[in-house]
Amino acid sequence: MNSNLLHVACIMDGNGRWAGKRGLPRTAGHTAGEESLADIVRAASKREVDYLTVFGFSTENWVRPRAEVRHILGLHKKLFGRIKELNENNVRINWIGRPFDEPGSRTPLYVQRAIRKAIDDTSKNTGMVLTVAFDYGSRSELTRAAVKLVTSDQELTPTNLQSWLYDASLPPVDVLVRTSGESRISNFLLWQIKSAKIYFTERPWPDFDDVDLDAAIALTKI
Ligand code: IPE
Ligand code: IPE
Ligand code: MG
Fold first, then answer.
1. In this structure, how many other beta carbons lie within 10 angstroms of the beta carbon of residue 31?
2. What average pLDDT does the segment 193-220 reach?
3. CA of 125 to the centre of ligand 1 (A)
4. Cβ neighbours of residue 122 under 8 Å, at least 6 residues apart?
């Protein structure tokens, strides 16, 4: 694994609060958050970022009100549908989460299709890899990896456990961003953030911009 690769991971938090401050419904905050992500993907792809991994929807988020969940699912379909933009920026899309064919997976079919299509249609791009974590939780990932490892003939070592992660090719995270003033990890990439710097900002995700991105990247140089 090449440790010269720059990997930025973002916990995109604060969409609801962003909307609340403006007297808007939470769903409007998620819509603004999706647009902010599109901007950040473009900005990151023009910088030295090799891997950008974003927390889109967690295994814990399914308990939210149905209308909000439905809205967020629709936004993921939209996000995975931005093929033209991704291709223009030479971005290869990737996904991590509970595998569709395994027990516990909750990703609906139409989102599965959008994910598969986006992966196929951007697979030839050679620039930044954008990994969207959807129906993702680190404990599910690590528990599954442990089960796979135990049922294989492999020795119990960190390297072998790592080989069973959802995407074993993801390099270690260099900087973990969390927006909106919370200083929590919320079950995101617990294995991969072993040596990561952490960039906490008060700004909610819809307001996160390239200046913040540069500040987060700068942390990796210290
Ligand atoms: C992050 O924003 C988006 C998701 C978790 C899907 P929130 O919806 O958590 O916004 P806050 O934290 O309530 O402001
Ligand atoms: C983390 O944000 C998950 C995503 C950004 C998708 P949450 O808002 O769900 O996390 P908690 O509940 O504050 O820990
Ligand atoms: Mg939140």
1. 20
2. 98
3. 30
4. 83, 86, 87, 91, 92, 93
61 part of the active site: yes
How much is the CA Rg of the chain, to the nearest whole Å? 17
Q: How far is the CA of 155 from the centre of ligand 1 (A)?
A: 40
Question: Please, which residues have CB within 8 angstroms of residue 49's CB and are 6 or more apart in sequence?
Answer: 6, 7, 8, 128, 217
Residue 3: other Cβ atoms inside 10 A: 10
Ligand 2 atom closest to the CA of 56, numbered from 1: 6
121 is known as an active-site residue: no
Three-class SS state of 163: coil
DSSP string, 166-216: TTTTPPPPSEEEE-TT----TTSSTTTTTT-EEEE-SS-GGG--HHHHHHH
Mutation choice for ligand 2 from 58, 178, 187, CB with most ligand atoms inside 8 A? 58
At 126, list the tokens: 């050679």
| Collapsed DSSP state (helix, strand, coil) of residue 89 | coil
Q: pTM of this prediction? A: 0.98
The model's pLDDT over 66-123, given as tens digits with 9 standing for 90+, comes to: 999 999 999 999 999 999 999 999 999 999 999 999 999 999 999 999 999 999 999 9
Ligand 2: atom nearest CA of 61 is 9
Which candidate, 177, 180, 181, places its Cα nearest to that of 206? Answer: 180
